[in-house]
Amino acid sequence: MSLALNDAQLDLRPMVETDLSDILEIECAAYTFPWNRNIFKGCLRDDYCCRVVELDGEIAGYAIMSMGKDEAHLLNLCVDPGRQRLGLGDNLLKFMLDFARTHNAVSTFLEVRPSNMAARQFYEKRGFVEVGLRANYYPARFGREDAIIMARETV
Question: pTM of this prediction?
Answer without folding.
Answer: 0.92
